[in-house]
Amino acid sequence: MAGKGPLTGTPALKIFLDEVEQLPAERQYGRVSSVLGMLVEVAGLDRVLSIGGRCDVIARGGRRVPCEAVGFRHGRALLLPFGSLQGVGLGCKAELTVAEPTVRPTDAWLGRVVNALGEPIDGKGPLPQGRDAYPLRAAPPPAHGRGRVGGKIDLGVRAINTFLTCCRGQRMGIFAGSGVGKSVLLSMLARYTAADVNVIGLIGERGREVQEWLEDELGPEGLARSVVVVATSDEPPPTRRQAAYLTMALSEYFRDRGRDVLCLMDSVTRFAMALREIGLAAGEPPASKGYTPSVFGELPQVLERAGPGTDKGSITGLFTVLVEGDDHNEPVADAVRGILDGHIVLERGIAERGRYPAINLLRSISRTMPACNSKAENELITQARRLLSTYEDMGELIRIGAYKAGSDPQVDQAIHYNPRLEAFLGQDKSERAGIEDGYAQLAAALDMPWQTGAATTEGNADAGANEAGGEASAQPAQQKPRPARRKARRNGGGGE
Ligand SMILES: Nc1ncnc2c1ncn2[C@@H]1O[C@H](COP(=O)(O)OP(=O)(O)O)[C@@H](O)[C@H]1O
Ligand SMILES: [Mg+2]
């Protein structure tokens, strides 16, 4: 009846009609037949539920606990709850609900904080609902229909902009042990990146940490251009998993509107842990480090949703990976490294010396990088990497005084430039560093000639001036004093 009226164009009516369409023709009920830990077994719905399907278990007292089917055993459906199971007992009713959870975002969601169900949790009132329903679980765009990664994206962090340049639509991992500065780095990226919109998923952190991060690190101006999805560590695993899906779905909404989206997820490890808990509860066998096989099937499904779109917009993804005990080869880190287009490794030793962000450049890589840079930029970075690597090789000998100055010109050079490189790499969290300035500052630090502006255009005329590569840096006469002074101030107690 309502299908053809003039009102169907209005969002409210469309939402209503969509919802009517989703309602089941009849109500279907089952009964709870067992509860074991988090796992609720329901009889009577096995013919109508499928994996991923939803139902509400009605606890004594009438509270509804949304649940999701994660398996079937002996003709019963196995469900995991999205909330507390308090009051759920044998014989409680379980009612089939909509099969596919969706979200209806609008641009008014910017500046807001939501939970895994897409409900506001920032006390700023209700969220307007948009016209289009975005499924929380969506497949990534087809590989052949996807654009290629776009031009460079200015991430506002000097060390990443220059040494680990990212392109629009690229996906990078930030790998580190706990307390090495992942969250602080993420907040810098959220505030300083030249993207249209941030979608930030905070998954599995403690509640207090989330509040502090939102207020102290992200701040009001960072929040204004972000939507933040939060699922804290005390929430059930399906909720934490759904927060990751929602983060991707919201990114897709903004991408489909032609925006360049920066999708930040902290952390993929906690998401993988939620998957592990779900897998184990459903009776999957544990494989490596207790992670079940489905975890490694699911990770690429989610991370692949970031990337270039098929049309205008893109999702640049930065995902943190917690490496427990600083073991960079644990299974989740390994799997994620294989899926992404590069990794940024933060190292405790560097943080302990006081240099933030504590990026170990020699262990980090951006796989799009040599191709997106000009010849001059690549030469500059190669030279800087060579100096860093020589210094690291000799570091031990230098520190204990076993290296005699003058015995190897390359090592002498590495020692000479090391404090300047350290100063260049350090960046206060309140400072934004533009991508163009980064190259000029690095060139100045290494006494290499540099022509601002000409740098980013392919095959620029300046390339010839850098032809000498490493040797050019041996001429201290080239030093440009202005950027060097700026760096000295910034360095503070950091550097060495
Ligand atoms: N850029 C930075 N500048 C100064 N201190 C930092 C910086 N990054 C991290 N820190 C210090 O390290 C601590 C832990 O950082 P955090 O980002 O919370 O670590 P993670 O998220 O890896 O556990 C912070 O509380 C802060 O004291
Ligand atoms: Mg953190």
- What is the CA-atom radius of gyration, in angstroms? 26 Å
| CATH second-level architecture of the largest domain | 3-Layer(aba) Sandwich
User: How much beta, percentage-wise?
Assistant: 15-25%
Number of helices: 14
User: Any idea what the shape is?
Assistant: elongated
Helix content: 25-40%
Structural domain count: 3
Question: Could you name the key traits of this structure?
Answer:
single chain; 496 residues; alpha/beta; Thrombin, subunit H; Rossmann fold; Substrate Binding Domain Of Dnak, Chain:A, Domain 2; 9-stranded mixed sheet; 6-stranded antiparallel barrel; 35% helix; 19% strand; disordered N terminus; disordered C terminus; binds adenosine-5'-diphosphate; binds magnesium ion; translocase; proton-transporting ATP synthase activity, rotational mechanism; transport; Flagellum-specific ATP synthase; ATPase_alpha/beta_chains
Structure summarized in a few sentences:
With 496 residues, the chain is α/β, with parallel strands linked by helices. The protein is 35% helix and 19% strand.
Describe this structure in words.
It is a single chain. By secondary structure, the protein is α/β, with parallel strands linked by helices. It folds into 3 domains: 26-97, Thrombin, subunit H (Beta Barrel), CATH 2.40.10.170; 102-371, Rossmann fold, CATH 3.40.50.12240; 381-446, Substrate Binding Domain Of Dnak, Chain:A, Domain 2, CATH 1.20.1270. The protein contains 14 helices and 19 strands. The protein has helices at residues 11-22, 158-163, 182-192, 207-224, 237-256, 268-281, 293-303, 331-339, 348-352, 369-372, 375-399, 409-425, 435-445, 481-491; strands at residues 29-36, 39-43, 54-58, 64-73, 76-81, 93-96, 102-103, 112-114, 134-135, 152-153, 166-167, 171-176, 197-203, 226-231, 260-266, 307-308, 314-322, 342-345, 365-366. Strands 8, 12, 13, 14, 15, 16, 17, 18 and 19 form a 9-stranded mixed β-sheet that branches. Strands 1-2-5-4-3-6 form a 6-stranded antiparallel β-barrel. The chain has a two-stranded antiparallel sheet with strand order 7-9. Strand 16 (307-308) and strand 17 form a beta hairpin. Helix 7 packs parallel to helix 8. It starts with 10 loop residues before the first helix and ends in a 5-residue tail after the last helix. Bound molecules: adenosine-5'-diphosphate (ADP) and magnesium ion. Residues 182-183, 266 line the site of magnesium ion. Adenosine-5'-diphosphate binds at residues 176, 178-184, 356-357, 429.
